[in-house]
Amino acid sequence: MTVQLDARPPATPATGNPRQSSGRLSRFDTRFSPYLYIAPFFLIFGVFGAYPLAYTFWVSLHDWDLLGADHPFVGAENYTRLLADTDFWHALVNTLGIFVISTVPQLLAALWLANLLNRGLRARTGWRMAVLVPNVTSTAAVAIVFGVLFGREFGMINWLLDLVGMDPIGWKSNRFASWVAISAMVDWRWTGYNALILLAAMQAIPRDLYEAAAIDGANRARQFWSVTVPLLKPTIIFCTIIATIGGLQLFTEPRMFNSGTNPIRGGPLRESQTLTMYMFENAFAPHYNFGYGSAVAWLLFALIAIVAAVNVLILRRLGGDRPQKGAAR
Amino acid sequence: MAVFPRRRLAAVALAAATALLVTAGCGGGDEPGDGPVTLTVDVFGQFGYEQLYQEYMTANPGVKIVERGTGTNLDEYSPKLTQWLAAGRGAGDVVAIEEGLLVEYKANPANFVNLLDHGAADLKGNFLEWKWNAGLTADGKQLIGLGTDVGGIAMCYRKDLFQKAGLPTERDEVSKLWPTWPDYIATGEKFVAAKTGASFLDGATNTFNTILLQTAGNSSGYSYYDTSEKLVVDSNPAVRQAYDTTMDIIDSGLSGKYGSWSEEWVSAFKQSKFATIACPAWMTGVIEANAGTDAQGKWDIARVPGNGGNWGGSHLAVPKQSKHQAEAIKLAKFLTSAKGQIGAFKAKGPLPSSPQALDDPAITGATNAYFSGAPVGAIFGTGAKSLKPVYMGPKNQAVRTEVENAVRTVELGQRSPAQGWTDAVTNAKKAAAK
């Protein structure tokens, strides 16, 4: 039974039909069909990405009451007002604060987790799957549960603090405490995801580099910092940029963390109001000032671009040219 | 070679899928026809319309009613409604509008059907005069909404906690404890001294709003904005007086500091963590939903300290984007009729805005089993006709948010009363200018 099954039609040389039209068609095919194949992405991006981006900018140049019939053009007025708006800067500090205290421990923990998972563990696949579980739960559900855990009076965290004799913390009414609580949510959800990405990159590192390092007398820690980390640099940059985009757009966690009336303020003194929440507060309830909200959106966009660029620069510096040196050796 | 057509096919399929995705966003929507009509009603909180829908659908077999939003709070509901109106699609055929937001919607009346063009003028006598007027635009030419309920205020209290604290539990005696707000505070101090493990009241913001609306109703008739729509948060004595009284309440340690409508607030209901709560008529339904059946018969209702007051109440409007305007108007008229208002009151307690309904024995004789058989009809209904409305300015909601948050910062010990007042005025002015 070693019959070779080949359903393809017999390959006949394409000499039989030298008609002009067929040639044109195939030229068209080779020249334009690649564009056709990538067109869906660009079409969708155009409709859901580029167009809203441009439209938001257009709106941000107007005094645009969401319900109003007239939207007079005001030029850059929304932007100048926004730059003088203390609540905007307050939200910006909140966003950056939450971003830093969530992203730094998150990536370090992910790196550590990935390193652990990269070793010869028993039931390795099981562990690797397990770290991703938090990521598949719904953000809103996570935020609601954490919001309850961090409750002032009925929350479990304060109950535990009470057991060890500490005073309860006003997780929602203390600015720094609220940042920590929200960061805990973000990290719980995203650490495992980053760990898996880093793990995949780790596995692509050739084993002989480690063997060479071991022969040179490098211990495990030295191998990690001198071989693994430098070679992970592109992946770490990727993770950082993704974390930056997510971190600066943080909305669901702080929004659901604050329940009750006007949660969009992020607490009575705007303790945990992020930029996206501030954008929402202005564009929708209670201000319905679409133009002003759009200006916030554009400044947020600019901010993300700046922070991402800074990230890349810092990480380039940090990594130095160690991998190249290593490769040259 | 066989790979070629398949690839081309895949490309075509992808392109087609993209085109579908793009167009799907623009199509849809049912056309008005002769078949059964589905009317969507958008509400928040507890309107108590379920029974009425059944009745209406039985009487009008061609109509099917779908309700959205029962139990959501106003802060979730109002932005959604505004977005639907701004987008020109998505809103229900009949939508509920709370009094504080009505002013903002009235500023852009083109979003709504003018009910005066549809025979609503004949219904004027069915509503308290001020409730009817609240639905009219400034020039009086367009009627945006028909009134549903008004928010007569009482004080709901926990009999079991009062007993524990050695206070009277009978509603008439409890009412006598607090003819004024200082008396209420004095009672609260006695309650706190008894150390029942519960606070005297839920949180300062709801009480603040109650005192403000009561004080404003009894004096100038406006709160944050005067009737010429000028922001008077720092010059209206009613605002300052309500603020100072609330500060006294906080200062005496009476507040449980539960942020109103938060999850902690709901938990505090369930765990019997406070003894009194300022109680507009619609709040009775909220208490019942939050405290649950375990607390049945433990609640009762007494008079509110001070003199009456009105908080809340809504209108039903028909957005112009509705595809079934005629049917929607008919339904809105039915739900806001005296009969509809009585039905809603029986179900969830919102106090009618129709004088005929208020005089109906079904209201005057109504009791509420959950609240120990309290004669809710008499408690809320008496004086409902003499309720003095409080005028709400264009950015009332945004300003109120700022002032209440300032109250909250004092309650949580983040600000002193003096700092809180400065914040309230500064932030209110800023919000009004946005």
What is the total number of structural domains of chain B?
Answer: 2
- The main sheet of chain B orders its strands as 2-1-3-10-4
Please tell me the CATH architecture of the largest domain in chain B by its name.
3-Layer(aba) Sandwich
Largest interface pair: A-B, 45 and 53 residues
Write the layout of secondary structure elements.
The complex is a heterodimer of chains A (329) and B (434).
Chain A: H1 20-60, H2 77-83, H3 86-117, H4 124-130, H5 133-136, H6 139-149, H7 156-163, H8 175-203, H9 207-215, H10 220-231, H11 233-248, H12 252-257, H13 275-283, H14 290-319, H15 322-328
Helix pairs in contact in A: 1-14, 3-8, 3-11, 6-8, 11-14, 13-14
Chain B: H1 3-24, E1 37-42, H2 50-59, E2 63-68, H3 74-87, E3 94-98, H4 99-106, H5 129-134, E4 145-147, E5 149-150, E6 153-158, H6 159-164, H7 171-177, H8 181-193, E7 199-201, H9 204-218, H10 237-251, H11 263-270, E8 274-280, H12 283-291, E9 299-302, E10 314-317, H13 325-336, H14 338-348, E11 351-352, H15 355-359, H16 361-364, H17 376-381, H18 396-411, H19 417-433
Parallel strand pairs in B: 1-2, 1-3, 7-8
Antiparallel strand pairs in B: 3-10, 4-10, 5-11, 6-8, 6-9
Helix pairs in contact in B: 9-10, 9-18, 18-19
